[in-house]
Amino acid sequence: MGLTLGEAIRHITNKNYALVAGDLFEDCFGRKYGTSAAIPAKDKAQWPIKLEEKLKSIHQLKLAEGEYKRTRQDIASDTYLEVKEWLEDSIGIPHPEIDRTFKLGIK
């Protein structure tokens, strides 16, 4: 079972990018190939590293541009959504429109 959005946000906030990258990889490539066992070795070797670097770079950029304007959780949430959308576009998985107004824990 994968990470929930709250867990992913917590890991990004704490800079545990490898955990989130692994979960994104399993989720997206599992949807593309049907099962984790069907993922080609080439993809297993390259994509988790690319995802971790992408998460790290986008999170650092977002922290630098809005550290005092937004909460750390909002920045982590935007990072996660942006990287997930980038990955789905990169490997050709259709994705639903993302509701960026949704805030975790706010009614």
Describe the protein in words.
Helices cover 67% and strands 0% of the residues. The protein has 107 residues and is an all-alpha fold. The protein is globular and about 45 Å long. The mean pLDDT is 84.
Q: Would you spell out the secondary-structure blueprint of this structure?
A:
Blueprint: H1 5-13, H2 17-33, H3 41-66, H4 72-91
Mean of all residue-level pLDDT scores: 84
Q: Give the overall silhouette.
A: globular
The helix/strand class is: mainly alpha
Distance between the termini: 26 Å
Question: How much helix, percentage-wise, in residues?
Answer: 55-70%
Describe this structure in a few short sentences.
The protein has 107 residues and is mainly alpha-helical.
Essential attributes:
mainly alpha; 4 helices; globular
